[in-house]
Specification:
Elements lengths: L1 E7 L2 H15 L5 E7 L6 H10 L7 E2 L7 H19 L3 E5 L3 H12 L3 E7 L9 H12 L2 E4 L2 H9 L7 E3 L3 H9 L8 H5 L7 E4 L3 H4 L2 H14 L5 E4 L2 H9 L10 E4 L4 H10 L2 E4 L3 H9 L3 E3 L8 H4 L3 E3 L4 H12 L16 H13 L3
Bound molecules: uridine-diphosphate-N-acetylglucosamine.
Uridine-diphosphate-N-acetylglucosamine binds next to helix 1, helix 2, helix 5 and helix 11.
Length: about 375
Amino acid sequence: MKKFISVVGARPNFMKAAPLHKALLHNRDRVQHLICHTGQHYDEKMSRIFFEELELPKPDFYLGVGSGTHAEQTAKVLIEFEQVVLQEKPDLVIVYGDVNSTLACSLVASKLGIKIAHVEAGLRSNDRSMPEEINRIVTDVLSDYCFVSEKSGVDNLLHEGVSAQKIFLVGNVMIDSVLHYLPKTEHSAILSVLGLKKDDFILVTIHRPSNVDSKKSLQDILAMLNVLSEKYPVVFPVHPRTKKNINTYGLSEYIANNVLMIEPLGYIDFLALMKYSKLIVTDSGGIQEETTYLNIQCVTTRDNTERPITIEVGTNHLVGTNWGKVQEVSLEILNGMKKNGSIPKLWDGLASERIVDVLLGSLAYR
Ligand code: UD1
């Protein structure tokens, strides 16, 4: 019997770990799968609701690290996760995406000689001012299995000298979750709760420090949303960081009536809103992929993306952080200048099955 520990910490990890957990449960006679939640995100709406909706079990370990500077948060995870690994002696640690918990737990595992699988490996924005880029690079260097969601990830890893034998193009586990839970959106009441009609609103998420940590930028964003809301209602589930800054900078009075500022949503309600929106404006990583799969137009308010396939074949428009330009492109799309997208290769709901095949096939003989 093999023992794997998956590490999740922040919101974007949960929908990646859930399908792999399900696939591993089908092999419970061969592998015990434990889940460690670092507690990087800890609010009911940033964490607990996802465990319930994604049918993840209560974590076997909860490290409770909470918020802090990057060094504080990473250091707390290092100290706490080392104890878990020393106690459990797993055969493999599985880490997801690019958050601080991903980096910290990879470091712990590698120093203790434990094999590491990185799910969503190889993505690169080539922008080291993003904390996530540092996390991705270090995690990939330490990983024994790099599970990649799009071809650019393979190219990046090869370019950085990672051995081809460690690289597996398996598709996108986050899309496994989208496919699995899409039918449940039929039961979501979110449209009626918010008084919205299908294909008649704009969905917005903005939380990146580079966008919301300065008063000027946040003010420009709100002014832009006010203009868009003259065309269609704007729904904005607000991340805790963005909310805190709106309050600190005293900007709540700038928000127009047709901009609905709401609490962060759970997975099913948010999926329903994505599916029925006319346009999404976001600085998220994962939403670029989900919108491509759902064939919804996405304006990405960042200067680069680590997910270029969403631009090459999907519905993503990489616009940058000039908010006048974001407004202009958004209005053009609303006026009909849409991109015709298609679904990237291997984004078919079977990525986690492929990962399990690789892992069990290879670890069985060790
Ligand atoms: C983290 C990830 C980012 C991901 C995002 C999704 C890193 C470096 N960044 O950024 O890649 O896109 O999660 O949300 O790991 N807070 C709460 N409640 C919570 C969690 C956070 O109130 O449950 C507040 C705290 O004030 C905290 C701030 O949000 O200081 C930021 O949280 P943090 O985990 O540091 O990073 P995110 O900005 O969420």
